[in-house]
Amino acid sequence: MGVGSDIAHGIQKEIERALLWLVALRWSREPNAAHGDESLRPRGWAGKLWSPAVGAEHLACRETAALFDESSFAKILLAGEGAADLLERLCANRVARDVGQVTYTQMLNPRGGIECDFTVTREAPDRFLIVTGTAFGNHDLGWIRKHLPARAASVALRLIGQRAEGKDQR
After folding, report:
1. Which of 78, 90, 99, 150 has its Cα between 20 and 30 A from that of 10?
2. Verdict on whether the full-model pTM lies above 0.85
């Protein structure tokens, strides 16, 4: 997928999404996959806000591992010399951690108000992946670009993604 565009061209986006779902479907059929019992869902208004599947999935993620589809989220790739320094300056939390580490953080305006709210994954010493809300990709990308120094790291949108979590994720 071409980095730098938030529009998928042709059938490429459909193929990527289908491949992602094939992997998820295979994993969901494993004998130890977690599935909630729909018959346990409370009736009435409480049932609209809660599902036993949530509890089963939460435990599976905590105790083993889980795969999350993040294809609807906006992904921003920040790479190049100075990427770590830029994020350390812009983010409220320390994000220049070891490669593979994920940090939940915000970017604040001069008044201390939240401009951006996302996770940052250090993919390499000079490459970071930011995952933010679907509707916030362009805003967050614009905020980062606004603060890029003249000789800056590159920044671009990505389109597809999945996330593994849990103690056995690796």
Report:
1. 78
2. no
